[in-house]
Amino acid sequence: MSDASLTDDMTREAGFGDFVSLLKPRVMSLVVFTALVGLIVAPGDVHPFIGFVAILCIAIGGGASGALNMWWDADIDARMRRTRGRAVPAGRIAPGEALGLGVGLSGFSVLMLGLATNWMAAAWLAFTIFFYAVVYTIWLKRSTPQNIVIGGLAGAFPPLVGWVAATGSMSLEAWLMVALTFMWTPPHFWALALFVKSDYGDAGVPMLTETHGRPATRRHILLYTLALIPVALGLGFTSVGGPVYLAGALVLNALFLRGAIRVWRRDDAAAEADRYAAERGLFKLSLWYLFLHFGLLLVEATPLAGALQWS
């Protein structure tokens, strides 16, 4: 985006799209998908309309937490190149409007999920919103380089919420889906941090690249990838997994490990020379990594894949 287009974007009045952008629809789309998978692969039958309402409530709750995040982070968003054009730091939406939207949608989504499914699911949705908006956004993000590690739990809970909405209970399978997303989050965000360069430092966010250095970040990416692989493969041996999931997971994790090793072996001089090709490649792969793992779980839930399940 050029400086002129950015200036024009920051001076225009807010439209409907600006309020939608507060809900972080692109980020939350993956969150909603994992919740949908958690609901579908859970044992038992859910009426399609109830399932639709449940996923809609989870989507609204995820969007609400995004609005609360943008309200609180308006000051640091204004100092980062990739976020300074957002509606709140650009002045198109007042912070109080973002706060009101976030709080209102939070209460609505939790109440409706409880009425439509069960109050355990509603409680987990409320906790997820609280964890993202308060524990991660207000506390962890500005106070510790472990912000992404611990804060990753906020994005990891949706498949559990979907499972509980369908069953009214928790299980090993649901928690392994949580663990998969939780362990995936650090290498995903640290790969991004390596090639956005000084954005986090300029905003005063203690990302690992700023507090421990870029070589340490590369080592951490590899270590978390090694910890992620057994969690991802372990899902294949549960009731929601199977040979189709396991075959796909083996390929995806081999590719992810190869990418993490490439990033670990490089230094910044090599990265600068090819414009962070390996780091960008790992980040792009990480987006597909999580989506495809949960997509494979959906495939395992189909009747055809069920015929191939472990005896």
From TrEMBL:
Gene Ontology terms for molecular function: protoheme IX farnesyltransferase activity
Q: Which UniProt keywords apply?
A: Cell membrane, Heme biosynthesis, Membrane, Transferase, Transmembrane, Transmembrane helix
Cite the annotated pathway. Porphyrin-containing compound metabolism; heme O biosynthesis; heme O from protoheme: step 1/1
Q: Which residues cross the membrane?
A: 27-43, 49-72, 93-115, 121-140, 147-168, 174-196, 221-238, 244-264, 285-308
Where's it found, cell-wise? Cell membrane
| HAMAP family, A to Z | CyoE_CtaB
Further comment: Carbon 2 of the heme B porphyrin ring is defined according to the Fischer nomenclature.
> What protein does this entry describe?
Protoheme IX farnesyltransferase
Q: Source species, please?
A: Wenxinia marina DSM 24838
Q: What is the lineage of its organism?
A: Bacteria, Pseudomonadati, Pseudomonadota, Alphaproteobacteria, Rhodobacterales
